[in-house]
Specification:
By secondary structure, the chain is of the alpha+beta class. Helices cover 33% and strands 19% of the residues. Among the domains are: 51 residues, Pleckstrin-homology domain (PH domain)/Phosphotyrosine-binding domain (PTB) (PH-domain like, Roll), CATH 2.30.29; 95 residues, no CATH class; 326 residues, Beta Barrel (Porin). One of its GO terms (molecular function) is sterol binding.
Length: 739
């Protein structure tokens, strides 16, 4: 505020005394000559010059204000305040005049008294009376000296009051301005509070049918006409208020009360799901209900920690987006046309360029998506059947819970197959969170997969865990593999969350030996490189580079053919990027986000369709997950309660499987005669990387089986078939009850 302008705060630089220097074409420095220095970077030289000019003008204004601060009193004061100040000054002036009159009277009477005493002293009086007169004369002199001192002090006070009156007047005015600002702030807060109360009262009782019929002119997700305007954005004023949207009657419920009760629905979620699946096959949805602006109460999380183990603390859906990790994994296929084009390439090196672009494109959806997806339940599946529209269909299944692992298989009639098993681990490092794919030969996997020490699982312990992505092209037989890079989420504690990707990806063609190295450059404030930069080289088995890749993981990827020239000393020289513009080819460009994506969790067009209800899906499909559906519909309190119920149900199922396995083991040992060798533990055959002492969970995935990959020599879950046949027959008798 203006009242704080005169004070120095940590981290601020006073413009009146600031030094502004230009470092180079885009960078400039502002410092106060002491410990505080700002290094600023503009995107272009023109923008840098605009900032420097504006700061210089502001500095000149600050210097002028500093010079005029001593001559204050010129601030705008209301007429009432002026009158009050004039009356006060008039009274003070009259008092000073009274003091001056008293001064004259004291001097006059003091002189007369002194003269009278002198006359008395000259008279002939008895000896003892003379002594009395001298004593009175001395007291009169002392009184005159004291009176003069008082008069001088009053005169000094008057001069001081006149000198500092303007400064006192300025301080008084500042206090009044601050009081007025506080009153205005309180008035604004009171108005907002009243507005929120009225909005809440209006939202608690809504009609069951608002947009389910064709007569409704208001969209569920888009604001009403006039709410948001592309014109005159600078004059708009925005407030943080909850966005409340009525639910259509096809959802089959009315919102009542404070949205806390989990039984406010008039019909079950299964019936709601059946109502929603109408016409979803014909037309893909382009919007979802807007994200509510609910504040997160930290106490509601902390109170769940009391008396519970850390692994059993349910995280609220406030941190989530209404998609599961399986659906997020399926989003890798958003740019499937890159693999379609790669399948048509005759050259394996050109094909590798498109595979590399597809690899980079899978990160484009993460740039704004800072919310976490739902952790899938064990046995949860997600299918995406786009065989008619795009020529492919995809299936994901959660195959393990400790550690979390998801298997993915996609087939395309355009000539390619994509499969992967993703296991990730995360490390919280104070200010940021690192999410790393498992599968490397590192000690970081200890504690998750266990070590060979104390294990009796045999030589299979030397097999690396999965985490590799496979892409096979049918006509050529080219088999490509690669792994994902590290994802870092910054500003976990304070500030706005933002995501970065860093590391290297090595894409290998196991048939030809061709290789591509992609480098994801980590973001640096002081770097002059473009943010989120990715570079790459496509080389043959001999190491000769044929193509160079350049771009960003959130926008686009280009490639250009590398033709080696000859330098002055006869050595081969690669041309620079700007010299190879003629051969530059755009491989991939990110699709624009849908309108109002910022209100829909920054979902892409594909992501908006993933949770749309569909007929015929398995009962374990993520679209049928009730807590995720409740969250998407804005019923977060009910979603939190449902999420806790599902997690507790999953824990009970795991304990039941472990108890059954323990009983079976004991029964097997009891049936052995003396000297018999007990059979090999099934865990050693199925999950040789389980840590010693871990309870054996005999769970087997329904649609995937764990095999040794002949190409990478890894243990991986591979699709064993049967899902699409079961869907065609609508025979889901083998599916577990997880919801």
């Amino acid at each position: 505020s203006k009242a704080e302008m005169g004070h120095t705060c940590r981290g601020t630089i006073n413009l009146a005394t600031a030094n502004i220097t230009v470092e180079d074409s885009c960078n400039f420095i502002i410092s106060n000559g002491g410990a505080q220095t700002y290094h600023l970077k503009a995107s272009t030289e023109v923008e840098r010059q605009r900032w420097v000019t504006a700061l210089e003008l502001a500095k000149a204004k600050a210097v002028k204000m500093l010079e005029e601060s001593d001559d204050s009193g010129d601030e705008s004061v209301s007429q009432t305040d002026k009158t009050e100040l004039q009356n006060t000054l008039r009274i003070l002036s009259s008092k000073v005049e009274d003091l001056s009159t008293c001064n004259d009277l004291i001097a006059k009477h003091g002189t007369a008294l002194q003269r009278s005493l002198s006359e008395l002293e000259a008279l002939r009086l008895p000896p003892d009376s003379t002594d009395k007169i001298k004593q009175v004369n001395e007291r009169a002199t002392l009184f005159r000296i004291t009176s003069n001192a008082m008069i001088n002090a009053c005169r000094d006070f008057m001069l001081l009051a006149q000198t500092h009156g303007k400064k006192w007047q300025k301080s008084l005015q500042q206090e009044r301005d601050q009081r007025i600002r506080l009153e205005e702030t309180l008035e604004q807060l009171a108005k907002q509070h009243n507005h929120l109360e009225r909005a809440f009262r209006g939202a608690t009782v809504l009609p069951a049918s608002t947009s389910g019929t064709g007569g409704s002119g208001k969209d569920l997700c888009c604001p009403a006409k006039g709410d948001l305007s592309d014109e005159d954005d600078d004059n708009n004023e925005f407030f943080d208020a909850p966005e409340i949207f009525p639910m259509p009657d096809v959802m089959g419920h009315k919102r009542t009360g404070s949205n806390i009760s989990g039984t406010s629905s008039e019909i079950s979620l299964d019936e709601q799901y059946k109502h929603q699946v109408e016409d979803t096959k014909k037309e893909k949805r382009t919007r979802i209900p807007y994200k509510p602006n609910y504040s997160l109460n930290l106490w509601s999380i902390m109170k769940n920690c009391i008396g519970k183990e850390l692994s059993k603390i349910p995280m609220p859906v406030n941190f989530n987006e209404p998609l599961s990790m399986l659906q997020r994994l399926t989003e890798d296929l958003e740019y499937h046309e890159l693999l379609d084009r790669a399948a048509r390439c005759e050259s394996s090196l050109e094909q590798l360029c498109y595979v590399a672009a597809f690899t980079v494109s899978s990160y484009s959806t993460t740039v704004f998506r800072t919310s976490k997806p739902f952790n899938p339940l064990l046995g949860e599946t997600f299918e995406l059947d786009r065989l008619e529209e795009n020529g492919y269909r995809s299936l994901c299944e959660q195959v393990s819970h400790h550690p979390p692992a998801a298997a993915h298989h996609a087939d395309s009639k355009n000539g390619w197959t994509l499969r992967q098993e993703i296991k990730i681990t995360s490390k919280f490092r104070g200010k940021y969170l690192s999410i790393m794919p498992l599968g490397e030969h590192t000690s970081g996997a200890r504690g998750i997969f266990g070590t060979a020490r104390g294990s009796r699982c045999g030589s299979q312990h030397n097999l690396p865990p999965s985490g590799t992505i496979h892409c096979v092209f049918h006509s050529s037989g080219n088999h490509y593999t690669w792994k994902k890079v590290t994802t870092t989420v910054h500003n976990i504690i304070v500030g706005k969350l933002w995501i970065d990707q860093s590391g290297e990806i090595e894409i290998v063609n196991h048939k030809t030996g061709d290789k591509c190295i992609l480098k994801f450059v980590p973001y640096s404030y002081f770097s002059r490189d473009v943010a989120r930069k990715v570079t790459g080289e496509v080389m043959d088995p001999s190491g000769k580079v044929h193509f160079a890749l350049l771009g960003t993981w959130d926008e686009k990827m280009d490639c250009y053919k590398v033709q080696l020239g000859t330098g002055d000393n006869g050595a081969e020289v690669r041309p620079r990027a700007h010299e190879a513009e003629d051969s530059r080819v755009l491989l991939w460009k990110r699709n624009p986000l849908p309108k109002y994506a910022e209100n829909m969790y920054y979902f892409s067009e594909l992501a908006l369709t993933l949770n749309a209800p569909e007929n015929g899906t398995a009962p374990t499909d993520s679209r049928r997950r009730p807590d995720q559906r409740l969250m998407e519909n804005g019923r977060w309190d009910e979603a939190n309660a449902e999420k806790q119920r599902l997690e507790e149900k999953q824990r009970l199922s795991r304990k039941r499987r472990e108890a059954e396995a323990a009983r079976a083991t004991e029964d097997g040992k009891a049936g052995l005669s003396h000297g018999d060798v007990p059979p090999r533990c099934p865990r050693q055959a199925l999950t040789p990387l389980c840590p010693p002492g871990t309870p054996y969970d005999p769970y087997k995935p329904l649609w995937f089986e764990r095999k040794k990959d002949p190409v990478t020599q890894e243990l991986a879950h591979v699709y064993k078939g049967g899902y699409w046949e079961s869907k065609e027959k609508q025979d889901w008798s083998l599916c577990p009850d997880i919801f």
